[in-house]
Design goal:
The chain has about 300 residues and is mainly alpha-helical. It contains 13 helices and 4 strands. The chain has helices at about 1-15, 20-25, 30-45, 50-80, 80-95, 100-115, 120-125, 140-185, 195-205, 210-220, 225-235, 245-255, 285-310; strands at about 260, 265, 270, 275. The strands form 2 sheets. The protein has a two-stranded antiparallel ribbon with strand order 1-4. The chain has a two-stranded antiparallel ribbon with strand order 2-3. It is globular.
Length: about 300
């Protein structure tokens, strides 16, 4: 229960401060450190036959987790109990929660979109999605940003908080390492199809519960619980990801828009099915509603974690 309270405090600190630029300039960021390790192992081990790549992909996962979990476990063991221990756990967990960063990145898309500055909106959305921004009109920009908001509400906020509440610093650090590996090497292409498969499968596993929990939080925060639940049950399975469809379907139903659908990656059209098909395309007004919903859902998460800590 102490870990739940620590995660609630970490979320509050992140919501208020984010990760300040001056701190990033001096210390960089733990995810950047993890990414540097993954890149080094990728260059060293990702070559040879498909079987060799799969084996060393698994070894890469184990090595990264060992490097991340062992120091986190030692720090957790060394911390005092009680309120001081919970406060210090929250302090060390704070950099691994991305609630403020996600809010700011989506707001950076919504503002120019509302003023009609598509060039600036495309530039902002290119920082959070992988699709070609030059192919996106107003609806495409809004759709890409809202899909990123839904998916990263789970991957960047709820999942690390959940694993931190379960296992403290080792839990939240392990989750961020897994998620970073998936984002860097968990791709289905010629280079990473084999080497990145262990990371991608592990990421799918550790996000099974958080993705569904995020969808439930968005549904509760929307005040349209039954509608969102129906949308999740109907549409979550249509998504190419086994997890991302849950928060995406909840968000789409909550703000009355359709998401997913066809998109362009690297000049190739991916003909994805629609989520909440039949609803209109999102616009700047829908983005404002979605950002407000996201904030309410994160507040609800903090209250739930705080409630667990008080039990």
């Amino acid at each position: 229960m102490m870990f739940a309270g620590a995660m609630a405090l970490a979320l509050i600190v992140d919501a208020l401060l984010g990760w300040p630029d001056w701190l990033f300039r001096r210390l960089s960021h733990p995810v950047v450190w993890i990414g540097a390790l993954i890149s080094a192992l990728d260059l060293r081990w990702n070559h040879g036959s498909a079987a060799r790549r799969r084996v060393f992909g698994g070894i890469c996962v184990g090595a990264v987790l060992a490097v991340v979990i062992l120091p986190a476990a030692l720090v957790q063991w060394a911390l005092p109990g009680g309120l001081w221990g919970g406060a210090l756990t929250a302090l060390f967990s704070w950099p691994l929660v991305a609630a403020r960063s996600l809010n700011d990145h989506v707001v950076a898309v919504a503002r120019p979109l509302a003023s009609g500055d598509l060039a600036q909106a495309r530039a902002a959305v290119s920082r959070i999605v992988g699709r070609d921004p030059m192919t996106l009109g107003q609806a495409g920009i809004a759709r890409a940003a809202l899909e990123s908001l839904a998916e990263n509400a789970s991957d960047g906020v709820i999942a690390p908080l959940l694993w931190g509440a379960v296992a403290g610093l080792p839990g939240i650090a392990a989750y961020k390492a897994i998620n970073t590996m998936d984002s860097m090497i968990g791709h289905r292409n010629a280079r990473y199809e084999d080497f990145g498969k262990p990371a991608a499968r592990l990421d799918d596993l550790v996000n099974l519960i958080p993705a569904r929990l995020t969808g439930a939080l968005l549904a509760l925060a929307s005040g349209r619980l039954r509608l969102c639940l129906r949308a999740m049950m109907r549409d979550a399975g249509k998504h190419r990801s086994p997890n991302a469809g849950w928060p995406e379907a909840a968000l789409a139903a909550a703000v009355s828009v359709r998401l997913s659908g066809p998109r362009v990656y690297g000049g190739t059209v991916a003909d994805e099915p629609w989520v909440n098909d039949g609803a209109p395309d999102p616009d700047a007004a829908a983005m404002r509603r979605a950002i407000a919903l996201y904030r309410r859902a994160m507040l609800l998460a903090a209250l739930l974690l705080g409630g667990l800590a008080l039990m």
